[in-house]
């Protein structure tokens, strides 16, 4: 989906088969030296080994666990201590319609062989992840006969083909810095976690949304580069908490001692195991706080995504409002007003004010039910869908805007021509 979308955008130049080999910075730009490999896909004929230099206002390192950008800029790495070798098996069935006696996703807490399994892409792609036991090697477990023996309770060689069997080392860690000069890290370049919560890709997507609404303001001349400091504060703290949860779940799954496994099973089946904590929200960064400085729900939580009717169109909120700041307010248009300064600030941000005044706008009633359950009449939602602020009465909206303006000072008039950000 991302690849197809990228191909449709005339603002994006896609170059495949190039490797970043050099990085440097000037006063207000960065340069990335890239080298063509084989094969190399570009609009022109390119020979292997050819180099060229890309100049950009910012370089975004979305380049994985062994990130060149992170290493070239010296951002550093903090190992959070989890390490385990697992065999990943990808399988393609001959008949995608044939039912398999396995759940859509699950963890098998068997001390003899912990296993994670999932139907990765509907019925066309199944994945198993199998933990290596002490003394086993990648060479042992990737032998075809061994791979089939590990999954023969579900499928046989006559049922389909194994498309990949590779051993990965599941790790936990986080970059010491996420922003340095003209470089920014997102995704696995910024953090690694074991896959037990399924949050690696999800966290990378959150990084991208969080970084790019800030870059949009900076490149448009509306905000100073130090706005990126709040990106690191928010994402580092949030993802470190998510990694801790993933590691904790992994430790539950990875028990290989039969006696310890029996204690674990008894606690889970008996209802005495510790409760699963709620998924963390943002607790730091660009958020509205109480007088005491505390962040109270729903601030820092993801907002509701539901259908509304706006400007005569029906659709999900973000499809109709775009990647913008949004004020969601219950009640009619005359229940709060903005002064000229607040209106100018909202216009600079491209903010949309959605007044959920009747059943015509919130025709399923989802937003009324959501906000009534929270005990609020107004929300300010960020472009990455996190709630910046919430108020019990719509009359507080102007005050929340003033607080947002204090935390997000804009520089004035936008650039006539917005600079671009190249991604590595």
Quick tags:
single chain, 424 residues, alpha+beta, globular, 11 helices, four-stranded mixed β-sheet
Layout of helices and strands:
Elements: H1 2-8, E1 16-25, E2 30-41, E3 51-56, E4 59-61, H2 68-73, E5 77-93, E6 105-108, E7 115-119, E8 126-131, H3 138-141, H4 144-151, E9 160-175, E10 179-180, E11 183-185, E12 191-192, H5 200-219, H6 228-253, H7 258-270, E13 307-310, E14 313-316, H8 317-321, E15 326-330, H9 340-349, E16 352-356, H10 366-374, E17 378-381, E18 387-391, H11 397-407, E19 422-423
Parallel strand pairs: 4-11, 4-19, 15-16
Antiparallel strand pairs: 1-2, 2-3, 5-8, 5-9, 6-7, 7-8, 9-12, 10-11, 13-14, 15-17, 17-18
Helix pairs in contact: 5-6
Mean pLDDT: 90
Principal-axes shape call = globular
Largest beta-sheet characterization: 6 strands, antiparallel
Helix content: 25-40%
Strand order of the largest sheet: 6-7-8-5-9-12
Helix-strand string: HEEEEHEEEEHHEEEEHHHEEHEHEHEEHE
Instruction: Determine the number of helices (DSSP H or I, runs of at least 4 residues).
Output: 11
Structural class: alpha+beta
Low-confidence segments, ≥5 residues, pLDDT <50?
416-424
Q: Overview of this structure, please?
A:
By secondary structure, the chain is α+β, with helices and mostly antiparallel strands. Helices cover 28% and strands 27% of the residues. It has 11 helices and 19 strands. A 6-stranded antiparallel sheet has the order 6-7-8-5-9-12, with helices on both faces. The protein has a 4-stranded mixed sheet with strand order 10-11-4-19. The chain has a 4-stranded mixed sheet with strand order 16-15-17-18, sandwiched between helices. The chain is globular. The C terminus is likely disordered.
